[in-house]
Design goal:
about 550 residues; alpha/beta; TIM Barrel; 4 domains; 8-stranded parallel beta barrel; 21 helices; elongated
Length: about 550
């Protein structure tokens, strides 16, 4: 390594490459260095969590929109911001670690000290944000380990084995046996812990029957939302191109009793209500009459906001068609499903208190469907409080329960609640077909497939219609073989590294060199032969 480049690298930690009088690192210096190490670990953990939350990418952006009333790609911004902070913290830590290896004192610049607290505030604020508004995401993160766990364990094993090189270097220069024993014990404990983690690991993708499960059927969640404006007829027509099993949507009731498609509690995000009815832009969708709803445009927002960053694929003709989209009625939705011989499933939202048709919402909705050409068995209806009325009016609707019932023929459940394998197997034993929602991430789709889920609702039907295998699956024998083999290799490499450093001649060790040589190294007044002797022997 060029001496000047090395000086720049090690100088990043104290923010100087000038020679400073030699001194020992204080306890505070060591604590600050350790804090940066913890920040790196916290940053990696947070990056993992935020990456997993990408399954709800659009939901995250919608949340911020509802709070701020303005569209921005908040998920992507926070992801990039997290990567930037992690890169910075990792650079500072690596620079400090290099100084530690070179026996240079740890003097953290005040700027880096300030950044420690900034990063801590950001991480704490992010965790509080999730806990306050997205606490259900913790379940999402928890079950993601069922798919990512084996790879995370291998990564942890690789990093910890590589870290043994640094530990071995440090041990050679520790004088007290008690300290040496403490370091070795701690390192060994962590290594053993990493090796045995798979003993408590569960994944539905491990087992001999995994490959027997058919691919989950697809319900297009609000149409193909990444390609066309959500909850428009155009979005569902696009979904039909991918041979989906059904369309999934959300239904509200207009002020004059017409069921229509809309997801949000306001029209602000997916229409031009801000321009047409500026004084009512935050009002509930059910406070608008059907004629007022039809005066709104439901496509231009998609071109303006580019919510999934996919609009560069659109042709000019497609853009013109998108600009003409209106809010569809439930009748139009059902007729479209009949046209493509597909099914429908939707969440029905009751209007606010005081709405003239609030008490008769379910009756109106059922009768609306019965007045269309769609067959009753094409309708998947979520179990409601007035289910007896629904069963009487439409006995052939497919009832989807939100909880497990032994007599249910259909079952809707949020996929990250399928954590217990016992509950899942019990549900399957009843003959229940599970519909998991909303499954967008590749890992989540693979998990649903391995679980034997019957169908999923997804924004990415255009992707998963062409997916023909899970991300991974293996038998228990294969998993055990890989796990044991990698652990043996990791432990063997660790032992070799420690033996190598233990057997080295002390006169080649950088940290035990003469004071004159060390001073020459620090000032950069050394030749290439000296550099190759010191660095290549103890850091290569």
């Amino acid at each position: 390594m060029n001496s000047k480049r090395l000086s720049y690298w090690t100088g990043f930690y104290p923010c100087t490459i000038k020679n400073i009088d030699e001194r020992r690192s204080t306890v505070i210096d060591k604590i600050l260095f350790g804090m940066y190490g913890l920040i790196v670990l916290a940053g990696v953990a947070w990056l993992y969590c935020w990456s997993i939350i990408s399954n709800d990418y659009d939901s995250a952006n919608i949340f911020f929109f509802e709070e701020l009333k303005s569209w921005f790609h908040w998920y992507l911004f926070l992801l990039c911001f997290t990567i930037l902070l992690l890169t910075y913290a990792l650079t500072v830590f690596a620079s400090g670690l290099t100084r530690l290896l070179l026996n240079q004192y740890l003097h953290l610049h005040v700027f880096h000290i300030i950044m420690i607290f900034i990063v801590l505030v950001v991480v704490i604020a992010a965790l509080v944000l999730i806990e306050m508004f997205w606490s259900y995401e913790w379940g999402l993160i928890q079950v993601s380990f069922q798919i990512t766990g084996p790879f995370l364990q291998l990564c942890a094993l690789f990093v910890w084995v590589a870290f043994s090189w640094y530990i071995a270097v440090v041990l050679k220069h520790v004088q007290k046996n008690a300290v040496k024993l403490t370091i070795i014990t701690f390192y060994s404990f962590v290594l053993v812990f990493i090796c045995v983690i798979p003993l408590w690991f569960y994944s539905p993708c491990i087992g001999s029957n995994v490959s027997m499960h058919p691919k989950p059927l697809l319900f297009a969640h609000r149409g193909v939302a990444p390609l066309r404006p959500e909850n428009t007829l155009l979005a569902f027509e696009k979904a039909a191109e991918y041979n989906v099993t059904g369309f999934e949507s959300d239904v509200h009731l207009s002020l004059d009793g017409i069921p229509f498609l809309m997801h949000d509690p306001s029209l602000l995000r997916t229409t031009d209500v801000r321009d047409v009815f500026p004084d009512r832009m935050n009002d509930h969708p059910s406070s608008f009459s059907w004629s007022e709803l039809q005066s709104l445009n439901a496509g231009k927002w998609f071109l303006k906001n580019n919510p999934f960053l996919n609009n560069h694929h659109l042709t000019e003709t497609e853009r013109q068609i998108i600009k003409q989209q209106k809010i569809p009625s439930l009748s139009q939705f059902a007729e479209l499903a009949r046209k493509y011989n597909t099914n429908i499933i939707f969440d029905l939202f009751l209007p606010p208190s005081g709405h003239p048709f609030r008490e008769s919402t379910i009756n109106i909705t059922v009768k609306t469907l019965l007045n269309t050409s769609i067959n009753q068995d094409q309708v998947f209806w979520f179990y409601s409080e007035n289910q007896e009325v629904v069963n009487k009016l439409a006995p052939n609707f497919n009832v989807v329960y939100r909880q497990a019932f032994p007599n249910a023929s259909r079952y809707g459940i949020d996929y990250f609640n399928l954590l217990s394998s016992d509950v899942h197997q019990e549900t399957l034993s009843y003959g229940t077909r599970i519909i998991a929602y909303t499954v967008n991430g590749a890992w989540a789709f693979s998990r649903a497939w391995c679980q034997g889920v019957w169908a999923v609702t997804t924004d990415y039907s255009h992707v998963y219609s062409n997916t023909h295998k899970t991300l991974w699956h293996m038998t228990k024998a294969q998993f055990l073989g890989i796990w044991i083999t990698m652990n043996i290799i990791g432990i063997f490499v660790t032992i070799v590294i420690f033996l190598y450093h233990y057997s080295k001649n002390d006169n080649t060790v950088i940290l035990n060199g003469s004071s004159n040589m060390l001073e020459s190294f620090r000032t950069g007044n050394y030749n290439d032969d000296f550099e190759s002797t010191v660095i290549m022997e103890d850091i290569r």
